Amino acid sequence: MPDSDSIRTARDIIAKSHYCTALTGAGVSAGSDIPCFRGRGGIWQKYDPALAGIEMFRKDPGRVWEMARELIALAGSAAPNRAHCSLAAMEKGGLLKGLVTQNIDGLHQRAGSRSVIELHGSIMTLRCLECRSDFDLAGFNIMKEYPLCPACSRVLKPGMVFFGETVPLGALNESRLLASTADAMLVIGTSAVVNPAAELPVMTKGNRGKIIEINIEETGLTNSITDVFIQGRAEDVLPELL
User: Fold this and answer.
1) DSSP 93-113
2) Is residue 120 annotated as part of the catalytic site, yes or no?
3) Which residues have a Cβ under 8 Å from the Cβ of 93 and sit 6 or more positions away?
4) Catalytic residue among 18, 84, 108, 120
5) Which of 61, 122, 193, 223 is most buried, judged by most C-beta within 10 A?
């Protein structure tokens, strides 16, 4: 069970905050049986990580789509867990002003969260590299054939950010604005060591905001900028916090 003293301290910080935000990573979706890319049972144990490179997609989109279909099927069959639902309830209750996620599975939105910034894109969307158009995955039968752009007939790319691509500028600017405005940030299920996600808790802390970290183990943040560390699984801790 989560430490009760840490839970009480975190509740007090959230209650007194005027602008609480959240940064989430793979640990939030672990409770929905979506493994980390690099962890046990992760996608990189089955596929070469090079398949998630933009140059590989340009050269051989067919091979990339073999991997993408599995990711899409995994995300589509998963259900939001108690962590996702707790964050959605916090937003609905006015406790959480916005959420930045490194996840690409769309589970935050399916749980009811509305103010979600997807730093790494979404596997539930498609993008045309030729005409830069974006499409909802639901309009295409990707399991039977490669999706083609209705405008220019090019093979569409899965909407997640590939290696070699930059984070969408709009998502980056929105997340930085959210972090710099926040007076409290929940950092959940992420080690937050990869930019641009890594800079967000630092921005909040630099603005004298409080950092509440929830993870199954300590990270580089824990003994540097974290104010309250709650050890445990996100799906166990967040309902207690709520």
Assistant:
1) TTS--EEEE---S-HHHHHT-
2) yes
3) none
4) 120
5) 122
